[in-house]
Each structure stands twice: as C-alpha cells, then as structure tokens.
Design goal:
By secondary structure, the chain is an all-alpha fold. The protein is about 75% helix and about 0% strand. It is built from 12 helices and no strands. Helix 11 packs antiparallel against helix 12. It is globular.
Length: about 240
C-alpha cells in the first residue's frame, strides 16, 4: 500500500517540481549576487524550501545584515507555514509516529500543502514523501544551476518560466472549488481581499507574508463560524 501511495505522491509532485525549477532558478541568480556559490545555494534551498523566505535570506546576506536580523526576517516571512501545519495536523492519524510528522512538516510548501489537504481521509506520510522525492531535489538543483548559469539568461526568460507555477496553483484550487461551494466562496474572497490589501494605503506596506497570514486567519475563521466542518474523524482512513 505504501508503495502505491508513494507513487501517487510522486506523480502529483512532478508538475510541482517542474514549477519549482523555474522559480528556484531565478532565486539562484539572487543567491549569486549575494555571493553564494552553487554548493551554498543548494543547501540554502534544502534547509529553507520557501521562495519568499529564501529571497529575503539572500537579500539580507547581500545587504550584510546580522544573523539575528536574517533569522527574524526569515521567521516572519515563513510564518504562514505555521498555519498550514496546524491545518494539516487535523488530517494526521493520532497514532502516526513523530518521525513521520517531522518529515511531513519539513516538506510543507504552498503546493505540497495544497495537494495534501485535498486528499480524503487521514494523510498517508508516504504520499508526501513521494511528492517531496521529486519536488525538493528539483528546487535545490535549480538553485545551484541558477547560481552557475542563471545570470547568462535574460530576465524576461526566467520570469516567463515562472508562469508555470501559477498554472499549478490554479490546478490545485479548481477541483475543490467545483466540489464545495464554501471553498469556492473562500477562494474568491481570498483573491479579492488579497488584491485590495495590495493597493490600500497603509495595508499595502505590510509584507506579503504577513498579509497572507492575516487574510488566512480571517477568512478561515469566518468560514468556520458560518459553515463549520462536521466532525467525521471516526470514519477517516489513511489515504
């Protein structure tokens, strides 16, 4: 069973990895400008699998900020993963060993969270391992390649490659929206409020990561009050 679930995760992780390749390649350019070599770029991506977090990290290194400032900036920008972890924990079998929880937590990204939360029943850790098996190496390798050769490509080419990641986001959210009207309304409200927050005076100065956290808590709280999810944990099966 674990083998089949692993390959299901691997299949779903391939488009994620391809999208990651384009984004991490451009991050490699930023890493090179910060003075990192391809080995340092690889391990930076391996330890911090987050585009915004890594961009802040490389920018802070380039600006020669202190270690404390780098740590705080990375923590704040990546704080949205706390919310994703809390949400995903509701799909974890209470009897799951700690080491499975640890590695699932390590591999939580926006996209892996999206495909994981969309699965029915308790989450099988081997599904996440399958998705991570392709996606995370692609992320790390692309960062290294970006350090080595990214500066030789036109910026427009790198930006065009990044469009694939937005297409993947759409592919993740459309199926749940078609099945559940509440999810569709929440996604629509998220789009609208996110746009408003990006143009409203005062609010637009807040970092994108912080705005995401605020909107996530606000929208999810309203949905939980208006349309709470029925407790069906007794009927869950690992999937």
């Amino acid at each position: 069973m674990e083998k089949n679930v692993f390959f299901e995760g691997l299949k779903d992780g391939i488009p994620i990895g391809l999208g990651y390749f384009a984004v991490a390649f451009s991050l490699g350019i930023v890493a090179k400008n910060a003075g990192l070599n391809f080995i340092e770029g690889f391990f930076a991506s391996f330890l911090d699998v987050a585009s915004a977090g890594e961009y802040a990290l490389f920018s802070a290194i380039q600006a020669k900020t202190t270690y404390f400032e780098v740590a705080i900036a990375t923590l704040v920008i990546n704080a949205r993963y706390f919310l994703m972890s809390c949400s995903l924990s509701q799909k974890i079998n209470p009897e799951m060993p700690f080491f499975h929880r640890f590695f699932i937590g390590y591999g939580i990204t926006d996209e892996v969270f999206g495909i994981s939360i969309a699965r029915e029943g308790f989450l099988n850790p081997f599904y996440n391992y399958g998705a991570m098996f392709f996606a995370i190496p692609m992320w790390c390798i692309a960062t290294s390649l970006g350090v080595v050769a990214g500066t030789y490509l036109p910026v427009r080419v790198v930006s065009a490659l990044s469009v694939a990641l937005y297409g993947m986001f759409i592919a993740i959210i459309i199926p749940p929206c078609k099945k559940n009207f509440v999810i569709a309304v929440a996604v629509f409200c998220g789009f609208c409020l996110s746009y408003l927050c990006s143009i409203l005076p005062g609010i637009k100065e807040i970092s994108g990561g912080t705005r995401t956290i605020i909107l996530t808590v606000l929208i999810s709280a309203v949905c939980a009050i208006v349309k709470p999810v029925e407790d069906d944990t007794t009927t869950h099966k690992e999937n």
